Structures
1.
Amino acid sequence: MIDASPLRDQTPRWQSELAAAVTDPRELCRLLGLDPALALGALAAAEGFRLRVPLGFVRRMRAGDPHDPLLRQVLPALRELASPAHFSGDPLGEAAALRAPGLLHKYHGRALLIATEACAVHCRYCFRREFPYDAQQDAAGRWNGALEVITRDQSIEELILSGGDPLSLGDRRLATLTDALRAVPHLQRLRIHTRQPIVLPSRVDAGLLAWLRSLPWPVVMVLHSNHANEIDDEVRAATAALRQAGVTLLNQSVLLAGVNDSTAALVALSRALWSAGVLPYYLHLLDAVRGAAHFEVDEARARQLAGAMAAELPGYLVPRLAREVAGQPAKTTLMPDFPSLAPGPLT
């Protein structure tokens, strides 16, 4: 059920849930009935990048299971403190792609705006976990410099709202941004990269849907889900409402060791996404961000998994396996290795 538009003096449900998110590893372990010793390492790892996870997402985790695939994505681990040398704070070279505070221009025809640093959930593999958000504040106004560049550069046909998570902004703040973008005649599409409809589906309320319906451009929303267990009835209600508002829904996942690095997990995810009206889009190899090395799946195995998916699913349910390489003009798509050519089990 999608929330009705709140009264002016009421806090929207999603903001209340966001404020109540779990930020203490000890509380998370208590809620899930886990060994309190798990929290000791988590507290040390969380000093540099703290825990944050909404209670609704916690409720989708398996109680008593320290290996739950949703838990593994959010619980800090001591292994984060020992990354190999080739893992860095800026694995995609984003500092070199900045054209204005908060505006990244990596690829022809599209630019990416860091709309906010806030996220509803802190994923431990996040490639922007060390991004210098404070340095991206425009002294002349939050987005003024970025908007000037977008307006001047007629090659920019598509703007991608990212973060953080752009849907961490309230509806009025989002409308302020898109009202300014209406004056850009060459802007043809708006893309929104967000995990909120997955981890905080209450964000898809009447106010957000009204904002989306008001926009003059086709809107593509790229969701981020990594495991079928993330998609429950409330998420399906949120995606249905987004589709009814005219939004095209795609999903991008990250291939993560211990989370979804099996054929069964990836096939189940694609089927769950389809049941929610979302088309699988990308399956990314892990970006080599410092603190996330324990999630890495090597390319050879990734290609085998992609081939096993292709052998089991129709083509439109098989996401493109890709790696992002700093400085390249596009993402690098990797060809699958099919099961008949791949050694070893992939389950």
Note: The longest strand covers residues 248-254.
2.
Amino acid sequence: MNDDLESAVVKIYIPAYQKENWREHADELGMNQSEFIKSMVQAGRHEVASLNPAETDPPDETSGVTDVERVVLDSVDEGPRSWDELVGELTTDIETELETTLQRLQNEDRVRYSGRHGGYTMVGDDDD
């Protein structure tokens, strides 16, 4: 067997609520947890590479394509994908970025979630 195609185990430790969120999201996309995490990591790597071109992988046959094209090509390369599956691949990046941004803003005490106001609010708004 080709060493490049052999599977390897990677372990990470995350809060239980996050694992459950990931499991639910994977189920919505029709993926198992391993496929979901793999696609999220790859999407994140593409995002990081676009922010810091000096730390990209060596150019490949998809050099010069847009992020949308790259996600589509990477996904379809693994097998046939429906429209909904491809949309899911693309929107996951946005959801992940939004979640990361909201967590950072909450950690910086700039926004907070208010059930009373039905969503996220600026910290220090006088209408509390």
Note: The radius of gyration is 18 Å.
3.
Amino acid sequence: MNYGQLVELYFSRSNALQWYWTVYVVVIGGLLAFSSLRQRPDRITGVLVTILYICFAYKNLGAIRDVTYERYAILKALKDAPEPANDVTMAVARQNIEPVLSPPEFEGVKRFHIACDVLTVAALWAMELRRRRAHNERLVAAAVAAPAA
């Protein structure tokens, strides 16, 4: 594999990583929209949605981890690749490209992902508790209004 192909592969893996993050954000948005549109409280639905989300988040983080490690390996291969003989353009490209290729450490990415997961689950259950309180208030209001009628 030549240097140009390695650069192409690196950015291909970067695009894959971007897609995993995009899917992650879209799923969180859809989940919060679904939860905010529900009218009646339902603990079972809340538990099922939470479990499904946690399973999705776990697998998504695993995919992000895999692609991140692939990017590290490709970057190492780029830096270890021999200098191109008599190819001034490639040598200049190499001098300009390699210094800016710095994928983030996975531990930081993992902490960010987990923090977002915790906040998402907290938001889901905050909405569930809000629905439950509103439902109980409606029941109390109906009970108070019923004898007066």
Note: Helices lie at 3-37, 43-80, 88-97, 106-148.
